[in-house]
Specification:
The complex is a heterotrimer of chains A (239), B (238) and C (228). Helix content of chain B is 32%, strand content 26%. With 238 residues, chain B is α/β, with parallel strands linked by helices. Chain B has a domain of 152 residues: Rossmann fold (3-Layer(aba) Sandwich), CATH 3.40.50. In chain B, the strands form two sheets. Chain B has a six-stranded mixed sheet with strand order 6-7-8-3-9-10, with helices on both faces. Chain B has a four-stranded antiparallel sheet with strand order 2-1-4-5. Chain B starts with a helix and ends in a 22-residue tail after the last strand. The radius of gyration of chain C is 18 Å and the shape is globular. Chain C is built from nine helices and no strands. Chain C has one domain. The chains are: A mainly alpha (239), B alpha/beta (238), C mainly alpha (228). The interface between A and B is medium-sized, with 16 and 19 residues.
Chain lengths: 239, 238, 228
């Protein structure tokens, strides 16, 4: 097991290694939108409103990617105490919070014309709101704790319990709203819709990876700068 | 494990610790043998308390390592806690419990019989107030109470942070007796003091801590006066 | 460390917490008074309509217990922080789990007593008859309280030692408690309505499952959290 002592030097990431990947993700996303908006036909019932699903569903699904990354690296941080894992988990939590927020916003944009109200206590929308609040708490905790080690341990614990709670929240809210829709699944709809959804799923996944990566690089650069100051303060005693 | 390593009560190597951006310890190396009592002196903010708290596993080092009788303070913290007793300047007792309840609680947590708690209370001279609630005790009585906790534990290494504060002559002698007994049974003591004279009868070796680094001192520092070069306050106090 | 020792240590911590709490009676009494006040305010919000009050009773009951109980969780660590007692507590050898178990037991007793008061008061205020299946209601209270206390005690270990602890604890705790509260409220509602749909049992099993998951997860992570 690596002790905390092993983390004394942190390297700043090479400048903009993620940039190329980012451009690819953005171009892919644009291409996916072209397919979704231009090529696939409007929905029989919902018309062009249906197009929002091409973004809403992939974004909602990729929030789980973020929370999975949080879980994975929080566990590894508690185990090995590498500062990088804490920063990566935090980056994923930040991106995940934004993605849940986006899911809620898109859901409301869809709900207003479709149901006539901005908000319905739909099980999936409600669960997403709860998850948003759980991870807003995670980010608030990081703000309120200054010591990096304590911040790392505490947010790892909060991240692990929060991620564990994701399926539990979904299940309990679903039971609570027994009148639920069938999960939208690509296999029950028009083939051109399926292609649009799949392309968008891939595009949003790439974008998610890029955002987490970029945020992680920024956090790493910040911490590496602090480490340089540390080494200077130690006067090389730490070599 | 290397037996000669385990012989060392404290083996600290290049310990460093920071709080926020401030480095309180900047590479402290210190060795203390079994059966040895040492004193630690230094200005305010020189890192004395931080060093003791590192050695008793209350905080982790940012760099460097330390072992207590061969047990690593980070990797075998659990073992270290069995070997080390720490007397903090803060009493750390519960106001709404009586003196006896406080020490008996400590005994249970340490896995010691209750009789040992009562014996310790007698030793520190608090029997007459044993069933009084601690709220309202004088600071000297509170120190005696935390000393009783240390007596119940009877650890191999004692780390004392300003143990003489708030003590009368009798209390000072009590602290020194505890140090002597620990050393006599092959244990060790590291004592942080301001007034060097108080610990002089029991302490054989002195360390100076300045600016987060150890400065070994030749012999005992003279009472209240800075030995040459050891604590010349060159604006190092924060 | 052997289980027997750990159990002795957990019991000692629970005894210590409950004794200090009992001797400074102000703590429990004011928290209980607050819980009743919240119930009364719920009554005002719902208006004088008997039916509406009866329908809202399960929600009001659990929420007032939650809002008042939150104060107990931070207090439980405040006792340690005030006199610097957390340090000796952390320096005792053996697993920190037993500290958590002890605090958990003490907080359970505290919140269970609070629940007893809250239930009696809400039966009166919201015109709810004592249900035929009252033993089942006790089960709901038991498992709901365990869930509440487990997460509350765990998050307070962090929140009480951070800046802005008053805000941070509810902010972390309330969203995490949504599943437990939903299950507890729905089970209570079903029982008070005579459990015509036979759903109370399912909610209770769900509650037990949540309790187990959270108990295991918090026991595993507490060691890290308390020493950081």
């Amino acid at each position: 097991m690596t002790s905390v002592n092993a983390q004394t030097t942190l390297q700043a990431p090479a400048q903009g290694r993620s940039t190329g990947f980012g451009w690819f993700a953005v171009l892919f996303l644009i291409a996916a939108q072209v397919t979704a908006i231009v090529i696939s036909p409007p929905d029989r019932d919902m018309g062009d409103l249906q197009k929002i699903m091409y973004v809403h569903f992939p974004v909602a699904l990729n929030t789980f990617t973020c929370f999975f990354v949080v879980l994975l690296f929080s566990v590894r941080f508690l185990w090995q105490r590498r500062e990088q894992d804490d920063l990566l988990a935090a980056s994923a939590a930040e991106v995940g919070t934004i993605m849940t927020g986006l899911t809620l916003a898109l859901g409301m944009l869809w709900g207003r014309p479709a149901w006539g109200v901005w908000w319905v206590w739909d099980p999936r929308l409600t669960s997403t709101l709860v998850l948003f609040l759980i991870f807003a708490g995670y980010l608030a905790l990081r703000e309120f704790v200054e010591d990096p080690e304590r911040r790392g341990v505490w947010s790892a614990a909060v991240g692990i319990l929060g991620a564990l709670n994701v399926p539990i929240v979904y299940m309990s809210v679903r039971w609570w709203r027994t009148l639920h829709q069938v999960q939208s699944s690509p296999s029950t709809v028009d083939p051109s819709y399926v292609i649009g959804i799949r392309l968008n799923l891939t595009a949003v996944l790439l974008l998610t990876i890029f955002l987490i990566w970029r945020r992680y690089e920024a956090a790493l650069t910040e911490r590496a700068a602090e480490h340089v100051l540390q080494t200077a303060a130690l006067g090389g005693a730490n070599a | 494990m290397n037996p000669s390593e385990a012989d060392l009560a404290i083996d600290a190597r290049m310990l460093a610790r920071r709080f926020g951006a401030r480095w309180v310890l900047r590479g402290v190396s210190l060795a203390l043998r079994s059966g040895e009592a040492a004193g630690l002196v230094g200005d305010n903010g020189s890192g004395k308390s931080t060093l003791l708290r590192l050695l008793c596993t209350l905080i982790r080092p940012n760099a460097g390592s330390a072992t207590i009788f061969g047990a690593d303070v980070v990797k075998s913290a659990d073992r270290v806690r069995e070997l080390v007793g720490f007397l903090s300047p803060v009493p750390g007792v519960y106001d709404d419990l009586t003196a006896r309840e406080n020490v008996r609680f400590a005994a249970t947590m340490l896995g010691r019989p209750a009789a040992q708690a009562d014996a310790a209370l007698e030793r520190v001279g608090l029997v007459h107030v044993a069933s009084e609630r601690v709220r309202g005790f004088s600071s000297g009585m509170l120190r005696r109470l935390s000393l009783a906790r240390l007596l119940v534990q009877a650890p191999r290494l004692i780390l004392l942070d300003e143990p003489y504060n708030n003590f009368d002559a009798q209390g000072i002698e009590l602290v020194n007796a505890v140090i002597r007994e620990t050393v006599a049974r092959g244990g060790s003591a590291l004592v942080v003091v301001h007034d060097v004279g108080l610990a002089a009868p029991v302490v054989a070796r002195w360390f100076g801590l300045r600016d987060g680094k150890i400065e070994p001192l030749a012999g005992a520092p003279t009472r209240g006066v800075a030995p040459a070069g050891a604590f010349a306050s060159s604006g190092a106090v924060h | 460390m052997a289980f027997r020792d750990e159990w002795a240590r957990a019991r000692a911590v629970a005894w210590k917490d409950l004794t200090t709490e009992r001797r400074s009676k102000a703590g429990f009494n004011s928290v209980a008074a607050l819980a009743v006040t919240i119930l009364v305010l719920f009554g005002f919000a719902l208006g004088p309509d008997t039916e509406a009050a009866r329908a809202a009773a399960p929600g009001a009951l659990w929420l007032s217990a939650l809002f008042a109980g939150v104060l107990a969780f931070n207090r439980s660590y405040q006792v340690e922080l005030d006199g610097g007692a957390l340090e000796p507590l952390l320096l005792y050898p053996g697993a920190r789990r037993s500290l958590f178990a002890g605090k958990l037991m003490a907080n359970f007793v505290f919140v269970a007593l609070l629940m007893a008061i809250v239930i009696v008061v809400s039966l009166v205020l919201f015109h709810v008859a004592v249900p035929a299946a009252w033993p089942m209601l006790l089960l709901v209270v038991l498992f709901g309280t365990i869930g509440l206390v487990t997460l509350g005690t765990f998050y307070a270990a962090m929140a009480s030692r951070s800046r802005a602890r008053e805000v941070l604890l509810p902010l972390l705790l309330f969203p995490m408690l949504v599943p437990v509260l939903l299950a507890a409220m729905q089970a209570t509602k079903a029982i008070l309505d005579g459990d015509i749909m036979h759903e109370a049992g399912a909610w209770i099993s769900l509650l037990v499952a949540f309790d187990l998951i959270f108990l295991i997860a918090t026991f595993f992570t507490f060691d890290y959290v308390i020493e950081a």
